[in-house]
Task: inverse folding
């Protein structure tokens, strides 16, 4: 609840409340229906988690069945569901606004600074939590690329010892994860009369859960509908085989297609890459420092020229490309 005797601060609080969600929505990447198809809003409901049913994938091809024969006996498709748990946790960020800051810095300057810091902080924490969940099944950031925590299949083929540190990018189906929200971004304010300050706190409660393609008798043997790309974290990497390449992305797409992982409505998977991997891919597309063969030979020059627009760096090899600073970067391999 906002409590203040200063009309300028009251106006500031009112505008921050109005601006926080739009700024958060512009800054956050993952809570996007194009990237995550299954989204759940449980605001106002009892509890902080929900169970998402996961069913077996189908089998085939179906053999010819004679007239009058038992169809179920000939081709049983067990669609008995299991479930994964999607739990909501709280993110938050706070700031102190001195009365002098409003007097000396001006209303618009202070408003923009507070909204930017609060919205981007909780947006970043949301994306970090989501990418960690996709890569590892947990929210904690991985500290080693080959310590068994990142359990997605690595399509780069690079193994422990090839590089001392790496960046990790990811290719995934829009049904690889589910997203839930219990509390939308909210701002609260309190006036600290003793310090002549105003405390402003932004919070939200949300969560992610991996939703594997259920292929066995229980959820433990489900197959994740995502692939990671472990590659060099260096802008100046000279070894082409250690750079993130279109071939790696294409391999990830092909593996997802082979397991019938769903695409978005336009038939694409999402490829989210780190800034270094974005540079390596753009260099390959533009023929600067790229490989001389492989998939690049089939990429039209106009695709190369669409290299970065508001986080989307183009569409090639069956994936829409996005850049994010919230993937694991420069992590160890030992």
Result:
């Amino acid at each position: 609840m906002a409590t203040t005797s200063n009309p300028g601060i009251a106006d500031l609080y009112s505008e921050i409340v109005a601006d926080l969600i739009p700024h958060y929505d512009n800054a956050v990447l993952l809570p996007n229906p194009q990237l995550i198809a299954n989204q759940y809003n449980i605001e106002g409901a009892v509890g902080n988690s929900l169970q998402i049913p996961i069913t077996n994938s189908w089998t085939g091809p179906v053999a010819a069945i004679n007239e009058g024969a038992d169809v179920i006996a000939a081709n049983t498709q067990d669609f008995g569901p299991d479930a994964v748990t999607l739990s909501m946790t709280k993110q938050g960020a706070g700031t102190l606004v001195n009365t002098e800051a409003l007097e000396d810095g001006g209303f618009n300057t202070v408003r923009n600074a507070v909204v930017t810091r609060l919205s981007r902080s909780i947006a970043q924490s949301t994306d970090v939590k989501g990418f960690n969940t996709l890569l590892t099944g947990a929210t904690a950031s991985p500290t080693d690329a080959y310590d068994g925590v990142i359990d997605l299949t690595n399509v780069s083929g690079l193994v422990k010892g090839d590089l001392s540190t790496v960046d990790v990018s990811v290719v995934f189906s829009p049904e690889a994860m589910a997203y839930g929200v219990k509390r939308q971004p909210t701002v609260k304010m309190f006036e600290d009369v003793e310090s002549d300050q105003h405390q402003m706190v932004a919070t939200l409660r949300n969560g992610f859960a991996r939703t594997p393609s259920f292929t066995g008798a229980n959820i433990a043997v489900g197959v994740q509908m995502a692939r990671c790309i472990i590659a060099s974290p260096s802008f100046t990497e000279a070894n082409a085989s250690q750079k993130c390449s279109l071939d790696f992305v294409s391999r990830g797409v092909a593996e997802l297609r082979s397991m019938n992982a769903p695409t978005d409505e336009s038939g694409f998977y999402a490829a989210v890459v780190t800034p270094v991997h974005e540079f390596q891919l753009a260099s390959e597309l533009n023929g600067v420092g790229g490989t001389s063969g492989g998939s690049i030979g089939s990429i039209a020059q106009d695709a190369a020229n669409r290299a970065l627009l508001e986080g989307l760096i183009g569409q090639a090899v069956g994936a829409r490309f996005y850049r994010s600073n919230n993937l694991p970067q420069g992590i160890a391999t030992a």
